Amino acid sequence: MLNIVIFGAPGSGKGTQSERIVAKYGINHISTGDVLRAEIKAGTELGVTAKGYIDQGQLLPDELIIDILANTLDSFKESKGVIFDGFPRTIAQAEALKKMLAERGQEVSIMLDLDVPEDELMTRLIKRGLESGRADDNEETIKKRLVVYHSQTAPLIEWYKNDGKYQHIHGSGTMEGIFAEIAEAIDKI
Ligand code: AMP
Fold first, then answer.
1. Active-site residue flag, 128
2. Which of 32, 51, 97, 160 could anchor a disulfide with 111, C-beta 3.0 to 4.6 Å?
């Protein structure tokens, strides 16, 4: 089983690189952000709750997101592994993921940290907002998301280093170059 955590600040390229990993390694993909956006589009109760947090650039409560993750994980049958994109985002979520996988006799194989300079993140996200119309890709909300990233999510770098799963990836450069570094790290597992 290949269980990959793809990690990085908003705009670091997690979604783009996840697509390439899925295509090469044939594993399932969970993007908690995509799940939430689908709920918002469908107008569900969860979607209404999620929108309140997303529009403010804040994280959803851990219990809620851990529940969503567990349900999605259970829906994968005969899976070769999973890429976790946008999850975990807090230490509590990382601990929950570790427990969830252990209960299934599995573990995280590697955590890939897509490292991109802050000014480049901002430029990329503003561009994405113009192209995709994502409501949280506006300058004010991006700034809040980056603050949340530094305070609540970045501590996971140390957490995964201590867990022996951390792998740094140079997240700026060409998409192909970044993917080559990722594939090299995965092939070494
Ligand atoms: P993303 O598409 O991964 O950038 O996520 C968009 C937004 O969804 C985030 O800014 C959060 O509001 C929410 N979200 C996504 N994943 C999580 C998570 N693991 N924990 C809490 N909130 C999340």
1. yes
2. 160
Choosing from 37, 124, 145, 165, which is the catalytic residue? 145
How far apart are the C-alpha atoms of 78 and 141, rounded to whole Å? 39
Q: Ligand 1 centroid vs 167 CA: distance in angstroms?
A: 22
Exactly one of 51, 98, 134, 161 is catalytic; name it: 134
Ligand 1, atom 14, residue with closest C-alpha = 33
**Top-level CATH class of 2-187?**
alpha beta
User: Virtual CA dihedral for 122, 123, 127, 130, nearest 10 degrees?
Assistant: 60
95, 63 contact by CB (below 8 A): no
Residue corresponding to tokens 């994280």: 59
Total-model pTM: 0.97
Domain ranges of the chain: 2-187
Q: Tokens standing for 68?
A: 């969503």
d(CA 165, CA 163) in angstroms, rounded, equals 6
Residue 89 annotated to the active site: yes
Q: Which two tokens stand for residue 137?
A: 């890709």
Q: What is the pLDDT of residues 155-171, one digit of tens each?
A: 999 999 999 999 999 99
**pLDDT tens column, 91-122:** 999 999 999 999 999 999 999 999 999 999 99
Residue 13: which residues within 8 A CB-CB, separation 6 or more? 114, 116, 124, 171, 175, 178
